[in-house]
Amino acid sequence: MEEANKFVTNEIKEKIEELKDKLGVLKEKLKIEEKKSSVKQLQKEMEENNFWENRQLSQEKTKTLNIYQNEIEKFENLNSRLASLSEMIDLPEAGAISSDLTAELRNLTREIEKLEIDVYLGGKYDRFPAILSIHAGQGGTEAMDWAQMLERMYLRYAERQGWSVDIVDIVPGDEAGIKSVTMTIAGDFAYGRLKGEKGVHRLVRQSPFNADKLRQTSFALVEVLPEIEEAGGVPLAEGDLEWEFFRASSHGGQNVQKVSTAVRLRHKPTGIVVTSQSERYQERNREIALSLLRAKLWEIEEEKRLQEKKSLKGEFKLAGWGNQIRSYVLHPYKMVKDLRTEVEVNDPFSVLDGELDEFVEAELKYLS
Fold this sequence. Notes:
Layout lengths: L1 H28 L2 H15 L8 H34 L9 H21 L11 E7 L4 H21 L2 E9 L5 E9 L3 H5 L4 E8 L8 E12 L14 E6 L7 H5 L3 E6 L4 E5 L5 H27 L1 H4 L10 E6 L5 E4 L5 E2 L2 H5 L4 H11 L1
């Protein structure tokens, strides 16, 4: 028994050293020391009497301070726990509590792996809320039902992450499902974690809409954009905007039906049209519509930039109908496979219930 405990403690020691090395690398990649210096500087600025004179700038600095403090706290908590574990494993009674030490090691390993993912979330807009849209492809009711299944999948994923979701616009299907839906998703790294979901999603199953239950293939397009604030560098000239107001048809109850609170906004130079009808108040729907438009204009500029880099980094593909990213197969076998990262799961129902972490984390590494 003593020999067995000794073997376990030696194994734990080896893994502790591995985790120490990982944390050392993460400390450099996450720039923890630089962020500590930035925190001191920001705290010093906040003590100045004129700090709140420029409210927008002060809010941005306060937000940055909170982000940096949370990252530092998360890193130092893991570092402290790992140091404590390292000390405990050398105690004479370590063998007797090896099961507890193993459990803590397992928890630390999982949390450090999550911290490693943060390294891939360093994009300019990764911390921003996300605007996620789903559009049913060709295929009538089948495709509309598939679009609604994807809507539920992302709602469940957001719920698992503790994010808040607002359905901005939805167009119901003719018989079942939805033709399209647009939602804003607010939470830490919402855009960063969801940006890899952009593209065509393919479903293969037995059709529930015909008596013969024939095998049916359906497609839906997922679009993901960052929700960019007015200060985000996407200017909008009032003369380029054409507004239309109408009565909302799907949200808000009777109060919305009585007045024209829903908003349709057209950007004259590009022809882009966005709609918001989720809120009871017209002014709020105007704000949402402007946010959607900024995101779409940002996407146009981003695609231009990526096209320019194509010659340096190889062929770049937009998330169009010909560029399928993931297959969900429910018949004749069960599997979900991402065609970019090769991640494969044999339980499609758990994925459709929002268990997307394995796919999302692989996408972040793939896109970096």
